[in-house]
Amino acid sequence: MNVTTTRGWDEFMEGIWKQNPTFVMILGMCPTLAVTVSAVNALSMGISTALVLIASCGLVSMMRNVTPKEVRIAVYIVIIATFVTAVDYAIQAISLALYDALGAFIQLIVVNCIILGRAEAHAAKNPPIPAMVNAAGMGAGFTIGLLSLGVVREILGAGTLFGVSLFGASFQPWVIMVLPPGGFFVLGSWLLFFAWLERRKQRKLAETAENV
């Protein structure tokens, strides 16, 4: 694996683990809590955000040397809004039911701090390919975060996964899981889990350092 491939892999993995938007940076909480009542909604929102993120970061990167610093934020928002509009119409064409389920949160991708933050912090300072690879990692990390919540909430709240019944008619759903408090509860549980993993990792590193 050469240096370029290694760097590209590191750029991609940054958003999945080290700077996961949901579980590390705690960004994009509105869609994270609002649309994750089912795995389908969570996956659709994650993919939509990832597509906008990749496309907008690529274009921002290509325009980085010609965009005046004084209007860069306005330019970023126009670029993001253009791709959000395209995704919005695509979802309407594919499934009106899905579009209604996601509601206004598709349009609100325009002001998602994950996308604007990547445009300002990374895409505006790097060539198109690294910028898009980094954006793809962030998009994948965000999708994983949404799906992690959506799967748990759908299984416990409806007894299904991607609409397929798992437990039969005798299952008693946890109604709270499809309500806002359920979103906070599942998110907090995942955050505790990842905090435990990180603390365990640090403890092992400390023990290894002591034994050397």
TrEMBL record:
Its EC number is 7.-.-.-. Belongs to the NqrDE/RnfAE family. It is found in: Cell inner membrane; Endomembrane system. Its main location: membrane. InterPro entries: NqrDE/RnfAE, RnfE. It comes from the Bacteria. It is a multi-pass membrane protein. Keywords: Cell inner membrane, Cell membrane, Electron transport, Membrane, Translocase, Transmembrane, Transmembrane helix, Transport. The chain crosses the membrane at residues 21-40, 46-66, 73-91, 97-117, 129-151, 171-197. The keyword Electron transport applies. The keyword rRNA processing does not apply. Part of a membrane-bound complex that couples electron transfer with translocation of ions across the membrane. NCBIfam families: PRK12405.1, rnfE. GO terms for cellular component: endomembrane system; plasma membrane. This is Ion-translocating oxidoreductase complex subunit E. The complex is composed of six subunits: RnfA, RnfB, RnfC, RnfD, RnfE and RnfG. One of its GO terms (biological process) is electron transport chain. It is an enzyme of class 7 (translocase).
